[in-house]
TrEMBL record:
SUPFAM superfamilies: dUTPase-like. This is dCTP deaminase. The gene is dcd. InterPro entries: dCTP_deaminase, dUTPase-like_sf, dUTPase_trimeric. GO terms for biological process: dUTP biosynthetic process; nucleobase-containing small molecule interconversion. Its EC number is 3.5.4.13.
Amino acid sequence: MILTGPEITEAAGDGRIVISPFNPAQVNPNSYNVCLGDRLLTYTDDVIDPYRPNATREITIGEDGYVLRPDQLYLGHTVEQVGSDQYVPLLFGRSSVGRLGLFVEITAPIGDIGFHGQWTLMLAPVRPLRVYPGMKIGQIMFFVSLGEVDLYRGKYQSSAGPQESRYWKDVAVPTT
C-alpha cells in the first residue's frame, strides 16, 4: 500500500516519517516533492573503478544555476532530510523534470527503512540542461512494509550533501 498525501502529512506530523524541512505545499496526492540542493559531485578520472575510491570534484550551484552536460554523471542531493523507521521510501524524478530530459534516479530509487538523511540524486541529462538550487526535482513515495523490520545501519546513514559510491567498501578486490 502507498501512503496518500494526507497520510504523509499526518505521518510527518507524528514522527512516523521525518521530512526536514517539511513544506505542506510540497505534498502531492501520493508523494512528497523534494528539491535539489546546492552542491554536485562529478567523478574526475577517465575510468571509474568500483573496487577503489574514485576522485571527485565538488560544484556549487549558484543562483544563476548550473548547466549539466550529457557526457557527465552528476551526483546531487535533496535539500530535505527524509527517512522513516516504518515505511519504505522510493524516490523518482518529477515528470516535469523528465520531460526536460533529465534522469534523476538512474537505478536506485528504493530507500531502506531506517535510513535518515539527504538523498543523493544520480543526475544524467540527455542534452545540456540548466538546474537551480531549490528547484523541485523529485518525489518520494512511502510504502507500507510487511514483516519484521531490520533498520538500515549502512555506510550512507545520516548523509549530508551528495555522496560518491562506496561500493568498494563492501567487496574484496578481485585478483587476476
